[in-house]
Amino acid sequence: MQSKSARALYLIPYGAWILLFVVAPIALVGYYSLFDLHGSFTFGNYRNFFSSIYLRLTLSSFWYAFLITLFSLLIAYPTAYYLTKTKHKQLWLLLIIIPSWINLLLKTYAFIGIFGQYGPINALFAAIGIGNKQILFTDFSFIFVSVYIFIPFMILPIFNAIDRLNPALIDASRDLGANSWTTFRRVILPLTMNGVKSGIQVTFIPALSLFMITRLIAGNKVITLGTAIEQQFLVTQNWGMGSTIAVFLILFMFIIMLFTEQREKGGTGNGRNR
């Protein structure tokens, strides 16, 4: 009886935190979404969200988030796999994670210099006779910088999943005559899918709401849901519409989390107890 009361007591700070910093902000956003620009109660914001403008904006956000997640995954998975095979894998992993500690704004401004008309990339192009190219304020620069920023967050969960993989299962697959591709497709990938799902969550969800990179790197040529929220709150001062977009963004995040829900599978462990 005492242990139950102690557990309940320990849950109070956690419950207070969830209530104040999760439930209350979401409820506040939902509340503001029910008011128009003049402060009158309305459901018009939700009706406006389903207009062609916001539907195109939503599709565009999902498309760019998909591309960022896809390229991050294509780079991160083989990188994480080969990291687990290196001698000093923890050191190499740390070197990959360290750039994520640098302020996002500083990294963004660094790429403005790198991709600018007088940056090192255009200097190289000029040296080999290609001439200056408009790299900044393009889809390429936006996706490139976004992938660079999200790569460490994609690598880390995949690395942990591969590192925990029982090598006895890979040996058994080889002993049964499976080639490297079949072993990867039928053994390694399914057993590390939880790491892939975690990487997708921490990449796709934030990529839906990017706004700083869209302004500084893409020059507002790429508009996402995050950019739209920023414009509604800071430019047009339409908190109701901004909150409505935020409500749908939160809804999309929950749906993505449901689709990437993790299920425990066997096959982890170091396999040294065979």
TrEMBL record:
One of its GO terms (cellular component) is plasma membrane. Its main location: membrane. It is a multi-pass membrane protein. Pfam families: BPD_transp_1. The keyword 4Fe-4S does not apply. Keywords: Cell membrane, Membrane, Transmembrane, Transmembrane helix, Transport. Residues 58-260 form the ABC transmembrane type-1 domain. It is found in: Cell membrane. InterPro entries: MetI-like, MetI-like_sf. GO terms for biological process: transmembrane transport. The chain crosses the membrane at residues 12-33, 53-79, 91-115, 135-159, 199-218, 238-259. It comes from the Bacteria. PANTHER family: INNER MEMBRANE ABC TRANSPORTER PERMEASE PROTEIN YDCU-RELATED, INNER MEMBRANE ABC TRANSPORTER PERMEASE PROTEIN YDCU-RELATED-RELATED. Belongs to the binding-protein-dependent transport system permease family. CysTW subfamily. This is Spermidine/putrescine transport system permease protein. It comes from Edaphobacillus lindanitolerans.
